[in-house]
Amino acid sequence: MNVVRVWAPMNLDHVMEKRGILVSEIGDINRFPDSEHLVSYAGLAPSTRSSGTKVYHGPITKQGSSYLRWILTQVTWANVRKEPNGTVGNFYYKLKKKKGSAKAIVTASV
Hints:
Helix content: 55-70%
Strand order of the largest sheet: 1-2
Shape: globular
Oligomer: single chain
Strand content: 5-15%
Structural class: mainly alpha
């Protein structure tokens, strides 16, 4: 018996809506010289503080679009569900054991 998965129009609309949010929040992708600048723009970069030779990394800065952070985590969730043994999925599950689900998905989004 062959099983065929069919996307319902509701699901396709949901995907297109997320894609639209992502494109509208980022704008022209070419304005970012590299991925680190995009991560910083989204507010997903870890906060850092230093004293002398020690550097401390804290929680994400949240300096940026909350919609962009939300959509990037949603895309990451979709990737983890679709390919749990892929690169992102393996990274997520490894972090989940140590940090918990919420922190792991945000870190995997970067």
